[in-house]
Design a protein that fits this description.
By secondary structure, the protein is α+β, with helices and mostly antiparallel strands. The protein is built from eight helices and eleven strands. The protein has a four-stranded antiparallel sheet with strand order 8-9-10-11, covered by helices on one side. A hairpin with a 2-residue loop joins β6 (161-162) and β7. The N and C termini lie far apart (94 Å).
Length: 288
């Protein structure tokens, strides 16, 4: 009996020693303040609608970003300005690409602190500046349409008139400037072009009509997609203008006011809810 008791005490001591060992080796104290609350970039994506300047209107497109910020307005701002850095689309000419010193949000207002020099850009004029301004305002207030946006230039209370626009006024979300998306044709067309420019040729090929796919295999169209993008200097179209012709659609592909490439007219269709590209003379020129 005494021997069994000794074994039991030995087991208790061993158990305690093992627990002390793990505690000393694996217990890590909390770091000193401020705590690191940063979010790892990898495998983290968020999407927000971005309003791009199109052909005398704003074009809404949902865009993604890899870095997650802690504040929703910071997320939107980061997504918006990230468009200027995309290597394939060259969208810096379609957004108000300015530097932001500070952004303050209240229940009713959003205050943008920036520099007057940020607005000195050759692309802005009296005809288009309001659209550029509202591309940022609409993007920023997509999820808070009740807020009014004010621009504070050089830290001054009073702001000058820029390109015919009174910068002292507040700006609110304006739906009337946004392009109408007819049956989501423009959205699907934009996605088709993304796939071409991102070299996702298999997905782009599947959007062609069956008759067209039967004429050439995917290898032939992959070469045509590549040549099409290359011959347009990797410039992504500025806008996709949709018109309905009886039961089909024609889409004018517009490369922007400063582009060297003329507008193109493509034919598309929606069959049983599926988007199909069935007329594209510009692309046919590059088939082998």
């Amino acid at each position: 009996m005494k021997k069994a008791r000794n074994y039991f005490l030995i087991l208790i001591l061993m158990f305690l020693m093992i627990n002390i060992y793990f505690y000393l080796n694996f217990h890590k104290p909390y770091p000193l303040e401020p705590y690191d609350l940063s979010v790892v970039d990898d495998h983290r994506y968020m999407s927000y609608p971005v309003y791009f300047v199109g052909d005398d209107r704003l074009v809404k497109s949902r865009e993604y970003i890899e870095v997650i910020w802690r504040d929703d307005q910071e997320n939107v701002q980061d997504v918006y300005f990230a468009q200027a850095k995309l290597p394939i689309e060259g969208r810096s000419i379609q957004i108000l690409n300015i530097s932001i010193d500070k952004l303050t949000v209240t229940p009713e207002h959003i205050y943008i602190y920036t520099q007057l020099s940020s607005f000195r850009d050759a692309r802005y004029n009296r005809d288009n500046f309001y659209l550029y301004l509202m591309s940022f305002v609409n993007t920023l207030t997509e999820n808070s349409k009740e807020k009014t946006v004010y621009f504070i230039l050089d830290g001054r209370i009073s702001s000058p008139e820029l390109y015919g626009v009174d910068m002292n006024q507040g700006f609110s979300y304006d739906l009337s400037l946004v392009a109408e998306d007819k049956d989501k044709v423009a959205k699907n067309m934009r996605q088709f072009f993304r796939e071409m420019y991102l070299q996702d040729y298999e997905r782009a090929y599947k959007k062609l009509s069956r008759e067209i796919r039967e004429s050439h295999r995917i290898a032939g169209y992959a070469k045509a997609f590549e040549s099409y993008v290359y011959n347009r200097n990797n410039d992504f179209p500025w806008d996709f203008i949709v018109e309905k012709n009886q039961d089909k659609y024609s889409v004018t592909v517009h490369f922007g006011p400063e582009s060297n490439y003329p507008d193109e007219v493509w034919g598309v269709d929606i069959v049983d809810g599926i988007f199909i590209v069935d007329y594209f003379p510009e692309l046919l020129n590059y088939l082998p």
